[in-house]
Structures are given as structure tokens and as C-alpha cells.
Design a protein that fits this description.
By secondary structure, this protein is mainly beta. The chain has one domain (about 5-45, about 55-729): Beta Barrel (Maltoporin, Chain A). It has 4 helices and 40 strands. Strand 28 and strand 29 form a beta hairpin. It is globular and about 65 Å long.
Length: about 725
């Protein structure tokens, strides 16, 4: 692996030393404590076993992996078509963040959870308020998030996280395991949301929240099981939050109503999930396009709002999906899932484009309406058998997704302003009219995989291939005529191997490809404007190791991925002739190495190099929006002298990022410090938890991220206080 100018090599040594400085002493401390307990209890005939928390049901079929020691992550997660897998049996880098972490950090959307992952950079949609992510240096849009392994049902732009039990991240290409994502990203990783389920114990939880400077909310989470052996489960989540946040005059109103039903029989299992997710943002601070400016202004105050008067975004998502599993025999399981989703949006946007290094900017004008309908499903069979000493698990199936988009927009003259001043007040927004048919997409695939297990279950070798087809039709909004179309197919192979060297150590390697839709050419000067380019493929090679000491885990991964990139050449043809090559190293640690002390985080180094650029102009440059390294490390400590009190802290440090492919403009590195505290007690025999979280404790002003491929920057949030009081009945 090559790191230019030895810069990343120094970062690697620093990061490795940081991880080892934490991991080795804490593990040694845990071992010493265990030895001391053994000596102290030498007269007893047995020692107590380590207890791993488990809020999931373990049984037949494809059960959700249990929670790992410390409660912040799980022992495994869903690996697409391969189903739920334990971390030590998965030849990929995965992390599954739990409901406990979501509650304790008072996360409100996926980006809050991703703050814990060193391989994920949070960004925003251009001009709007969508969650957007960069995983291992490649884009993942909010359209490409799945629910329970199914694309197309997750809310667009922003997801209220209160209805979900897990947020699972698979880092790296995933075209075989997850299928082709419905957007133009997803080449560097994927995010899957796991809905909450009713637990065996009755649950009624009521939470009141407050966020600076005046955002109040309430959340009801209730679940019950009924029938013989608690076969039937019902869980519902209702949430409302409204008010001005930490950014001046930015008001956000969020509503969520979600229902989860499940049935678990001897041979059959069923889940049903449905919800309505509504979000309204008024005077939301926009992202900033750098335009042609090469000397960027410093970040404005984190609480300062330069949104143009009259901007808003009104979003509503309705979704439902059902999943069925049936055990035909002890070795054969068939499964199917089908879902539907409707998205309805009305927006007035006025994004800022810099015109000078003093913060002067031109504020655009864009009013639009957007509606999307999705129908999505999968059908498959999982068969286990043995051939001599080798065990097989064969997975085969098919997936399909139909998507229809209606939209319209209006654009009028904008207004000049400055990001250090209040936003413009005189912009008049046009009437976009009724939404019209914009595009239809049909994604389909067939897959086959075989996982071979041998040498006393110490070696797991998986090979598979997925045949994918994408059909796209784009329509002119004025005439309604078809403006472009393509019908393309591709094979996405995968091979992965993981070996259990010891009970504590596994090593793995994989080769897998990514696949995403090619972008539609929108450049006014391109001779092929309106054409949709062929799907993009990435090729990824990865090796790594995973450690699991029962209460403390760690991992290391080395990867290389190559992705095609598009540009307008000298003949004014927009073409996919470029390439971005990312090479990196991930170091992670998690768990509870010592009772009462929990850690979570790591560091990722990436050398994201542009190659095969137009006329070689930008060859060797760093890809925009990809920091050389990112560190995130959190810790919690239960105070021994104050029963029920836990304090915590987290540091996030992100290296500088280039904004343009020419590397003429960049944002500086930044550091954020978060702190937390919670108190667990009882009031009239009912558990009560008080949580307090402060993000950006030092109130730093900084540019948080540069868009991976869109050329914009996003201002970081200011000091933000979150308070919550939860009572469980």
C-alpha cells in the first residue's frame, strides 16, 4: 500500500500507538482483575462466567445477533443476502450500533449515530437538509439506506431514529451482499436499519426531551407480547419534537408514528413494520458552494444562520414492509419480503455560492415539489447440507425494485449576500406547479452464494455472484416525452474467507465489487446532455483481523477500492473515463474491558487518489471530501462513589479536506469534544433515567465537511445541549 510523502505513514503509526495505548492496558487490566478475582475466590469450585447483554431473541431462522458487552454495539449484524452473521464469522468490516447507544447519546437521526464511526464522514445534501455520508471515501446518499435488508422503504433525506433498534454499517463495496443501491452512491459501504421488536418483558417508556435553545419533544415507546409462548408481539413508537435548535432561527418539527408486529412460531416467523416520518425545517442553514473561489473564508459562528428568508422544507414519508420466514425442514428455510414507500416533498431552497473570500455569496432560488413511489421485494431460499467434512450454506434468491418519480421546479432570480450576515430577505420564490413524471427505475437481480465451513468450523469460505439489471427512463417535464433511457446488466462477484486462528482471533480477506447507477448528464455545455451513463463499478480488495476477548473487541482492516469517475472532456462529451483509487487502514475498538468502563471508536486513514483524469490534469491529486484520516474515540465510566451515575466523553478529529478535484481549495482540520452524563434511579419502584449530553463543548467554529463530488462545504454545529428524562413502567 502506498501513502504519498509518508504523511499517512506517520498518521498510521500515531493511530496504531493510540489504539494500542488504550487497548493493551485496558485488556491487561481486565486480565489482572480476573486473575485477582480467581485468587480471591480460590476456595470456590466455580468461577462466574462473563455475562453478555442480550436484548435480542435467539432462536430458529435468522435471529438478530445479541448485544455485545458494554451495550453499545452488537455481536454481529445483517450481511445482506447472507443474513445475520456473527462478527467473527463475517469476512467484512461491520459494526452494529444498538438502541442503548442511540438512547444514551440522544441521537435524532442516522448522522448522530455515524459520529461514532471512524470510517464514516457525515455530509449534507446540496442545498437541502438530507443526510449524506462518505464511507471509505465514497458517497452514500439517504436514498440508499435499507430497512431490515430491504432497499426502497427508508424515509428520504432524514430518518427519525426512535423506531429503530440497530443501525448497522457494512464498510466497503457490497453489490453482491446488498444488491445495487437505488441511487448513485453506495460504492464504499451501506447502512441498514433494524426496527424495534416487542421484548419478552412488557415495555412502556416515556421520554421528555429538551435541546438548546428551545427544542422540546416527547417520545412514547411501548411493547407487549401475547399468545402461547409469547408468539405475537406489538411495539409502537410515537414521537414529536419541535422548536428552535442551536442554530439561530432554524426551526425543526419532527413527527414519527411507527408500528412493529411480529409472530414467532415453531417453523414460521413474520415481521411487519410501518411508519409515517414527517419533517419540516424552516430557515434551515444551507450548505455553501465554493464556486470558483480558491481562498475559502473562515467558518462563521456555529450558531449563526445565513439562511434566506422564506426557505423551508416540508417532507413526509410513509412506508410499510412485511418479511416472512418458513422452515421447510431442519435444513431448508424459504423467505420473502415486500415493501412499499411514498415520499412527498415541498421545498423552497436558497443555497449560497461563494463569490469572494470575504464571505460574499450569491443566494440562488429554487422551489420544487417531489413525489416518489417505491415497491420493493426479495424472495430466497437458504439450504444447509454436508459433503464429507465440509458444511455448506447455500443462499439463492432474487430481488426487485420499481420506482417512479414525479417532480417539478421553478427558479427565479436570486440575491447577493454574505455568509457572515443575516440571509437575504428579498428573494421571491416561484411556483413549481404540479409534479410531473420525471423518471422510472426498475432494479432486479438474481444471486447465488455458498458458504463452506471446514476444519472443525474454523474456516468459512464464501463465494457468490449476483446478476443485476437496471432499467432507467427519464422524461421531459415540459413535454412529457421520454428524454433518455438505458437498460444495462452486470455481474457482481464476491469471494470472502475468514479463519478462526484462536477463540479470540480471526483473520479474513475478501474481493468484492460495488455497483451503482451512472449519473444523468446535466451540464448545459455537454453534447450528450440528458444521457444517463452506464452503471459504475468498483473493485475492492481487503484483508483484516478481528479480536474478541469476550468483553473487549478490536479490529484492523486494510483495503483498496477503485471507482470510475465522470467528467466533461475537451470534446464536450460527459464520459466515464476517470478513476478514483482509495487505499486505507481502519483500526477499531469497542466493549467493556473493565466492569464499568466502556470504549468505542477508532481511526481510519485513507489515501484517496485521482487517476486517469482528463488530460492527466489532476492525476495524483486527492479526491475532494475525503480526509487523510479521521479519529473518533468515546469512553464511559460508571462512578463507583455515586451509584447510578455514568460520565462520558468523545473526541472527533477530522483532517483537512479538499473541496475541488484541482486541490486549489480546502477546509482545515477540526476537532470536536462531546461530554455526557446520566443518572439511573427509581421513583416509586419505576426506573427513571436522566440524560445530559453536550456536543461541541468548546463551541468551536469550523467547516465540518466538503462534499465528496458536489463542491460544497457545510458549517459545523455550535455547542449543543440535549437533556432527556425517561421513565419506564
Amino acid at each position: 500500500m502506498r501513502f504519498r510523502n509518508h504523511k499517512s505513514s506517520r498518521y498510521l503509526l500515531l493511530g496504531t500507538a493510540s489504539i494500542l495505548a488504550i487497548a493493551v492496558p485496558t485488556y491487561a487490566w481486565a486480565q489482572t482483575a480476573t486473575e485477582a478475582e480467581t485468587v480471591e475466590n480460590a476456595t470456590e469450585t466455580q468461577t462466574e462466567a462473563v455475562v453478555i447483554e442480550d436484548s435480542a431473541e435467539s432462536g430458529a431462522g435468522d435471529p438478530t445477533p445479541p448485544v455485545y458487552a458494554g451495550g453499545q454495539v452488537a455481536t454481529g449484524g445483517r450481511v445482506g443476502a447472507l443474513g445475520n452473521r456473527d462478527i467473527l464469522d463475517t469476512p467484512f468490516s461491520t459494526t452494529s450500533y444498538t438502541e442503548e447507544l442511540i438512547k444514551n447519546q440522544q441521537a435524532q437521526d442516522i448522522s448522530d449515530v455515524m459520529d461514532n464511526d471512524p470510517s464514516v464522514v457525515n455530509t449534507s445534501g446540496f442545498g437541502n437538509f438530507a443526510n449524506r455520508f462518505t464511507i471509505r471515501g465514497f458517497d452514500l446518499t439517504s436514498d440508499e439506506v435499507s430497512i431490515d435488508g430491504l432497499y426502497g422503504t427508508a424515509p428520504r433525506q432524514s430518518v427519525a431514529i426512535e423506531m429503530f433498534d440497530r443501525v448497522e454499517v457494512l464498510k466497503g463495496a457490497s453489490a453482491f451482499v446488498n444488491g445495487m443501491a437505488p441511487g448513485s452512491g453506495g460504492l464504499g459501504g451501506s447502512i441498514n436499519l433494524v426496527p424495534k421488536r416487542a421484548t419478552d418483558d412488557p415495555l412502556t417508556s416515556v421520554t421528555g426531551t429538551y435541546g438548546s435553545t428551545g427544542q422540546f419533544g416527547g417520545h412514547l415507546d411501548a411493547g407487549r407480547r401475547f399468545g402461547n409462548d409469547n408468539q405475537f408481539g406489538v411495539r409502537t413508537n410515537l414521537m414529536y419534537r419541535d422548536g428552535e435548535g442551536a442554530i439561530e432561527d432554524e426551526d425543526r418539527e419532527t413527527k414519527l408514528a411507527a408500528l412493529a408486529l411480529d409472530f414467532r412460531g415453531d417453523n414460521a416467523r413474520m415481521t411487519f413494520d410501518a411508519g409515517i416520518n414527517q419533517l419540516r425545517v424552516e430557515n434551515g442553514r444551507p450548505t455553501v458552494s465554493v464556486g470558483t473561489v480558491t481562498s475559502l473564508p473562515g467558518a462563521p459562528s456555529g450558531s449563526h444562520n445565513f439562511a434566506a428568508a422564506g426557505t423551508y422544507s416540508d417532507l413526509e414519508d410513509k412506508f410499510a414492509q412485511i418479511r416472512l420466514e418458513y422452515d421447510v425442514t431442519d435444513s431448508t428455510m424459504v423467505y420473502t419480503a415486500i415493501g412499499g414507500h411514498n415520499s412527498d416533498e415541498i421545498n423552497n431552497y436558497a443555497s449560497a455560492t461563494l463569490s469572494g473570500s470575504d464571505g460574499s455569496a450569491d443566494f440562488g432560488n429554487f422551489a420544487n415539489v417531489y413525489q416518489r413511489d417505491d415497491v420493493t421485494g426479495t424472495l430466497g431460499i437458504r439450504q444447509t447440507f454436508e459433503t464429507g467434512p465440509v458444511k455448506h450454506e447455500v443462499n439463492t434468491g432474487t430481488t426487485g425494485m420499481w420506482q417512479e418519480v414525479h417532480q417539478n421546479w421553478a427558479s427565479l432570480t436570486g440575491e447577493s449576500g454574505n455568509i457572515y450576515n443575516s440571509g437575504p430577505t428579498g428573494i421571491a420564490f416561484g411556483d413549481p406547479g404540479d409534479p410531473k413524471l420525471s423518471s422510472t427505475n426498475i432494479l432486479s437481480s438474481y444471486f447465488l452464494a455458498d458458504t463452506l465451513t471446514f476444519l472443525e468450523d474454523k474456516i468459512h469460505l464464501t463465494g457468490g455472484i449476483r446478476r443485476q439489471n437496471v432499467k432507467v427512463r427519464n422524461y421531459d417535464l415540459t413535454t412529457g416525452a421520454k428524454s433518455s433511457a438505458y437498460d444495462s446488466s452486470a455481474n457482481s462477484p464476491m469471494v470472502g474467507v475468514i479463519g478462526n486462528v484462536t477463540d479470540d482471533l480471526s483473520v479474513y480477506g475478501n474481493y468484492i465489487e460495488g455497483l451503482s447507477q451512472g449519473q444523468t448528464v446535466t451540464s448545459a455545455t455537454a453534447t450528450n446532455r440528458g444521457e444517463t451513463l452506464a452503471p459504475y463499478k468498483t473493485k475492492q480488495y481487503e484483508i483484516g483481523a478481528k479480536l474478541d476477548f469476550g468483553t473487549f473487541g478490536a479490529g484492523i482492516a486494510l483495503f483498496e477500492a477503485e471507482k470510475p469517475s465522470a467528467y466533461e472532456n475537451s470534446s464536450n462529451v460527459f464520459t466515464t473515463d476517470g478513476e478514483q483509487r482509495n487505499r486505507g487502514i481502519e483500526l477499531t475498538a469497542y466493549g467493556e474491558p473493565v466492569t464499568g468502563t466502556r470504549i468505542l471508536g477508532g481511526i481510519t486513514f485513507i489515501d484517496a487518489e485521482l487517476v486517469k483524469t482528463e488530460d492527466g490534469t489532476n492525476d495524483g491529486n486527492t479526491a475532494p471530501g475525503v480526509p487523510d484520516y479521521q479519529l473518533t474515540l468515546g469512553a464511559e465510566y460508571d462512578l463507583p462513589f455515586l451509584d447510578g451515575v455514568t460520565i462520558g466523553g468523545r473526541i472527533i478529529h477530522t483532517a483537512s479536506q479538499y473541496v475541488t478535484a484541482s486541490n486549489t481549495a480546502s477546509i482545515p482540520s477540526w476537532t470536536r469534544l462531546d461530554v455526557s452524563a446520566r443518572y439511573v434511579t427509581e421513583v416509586h419502584n419505576y426506573p427513571v433515567t436522566l440524560r445530559a449530553n453536550i456536543e461541541n463543548l468548546t463551541n468551536n467554529d469550523y467547516w465540518e465537511t466538503a462534499g465528496n463530488s458536489i463542491g460544497y462545504i457545510t458549517a459545523g454545529a455550535p455547542l449543543t445541549v440535549k437533556l432527556a428524562l425517561t421513565a419506564d413502567f
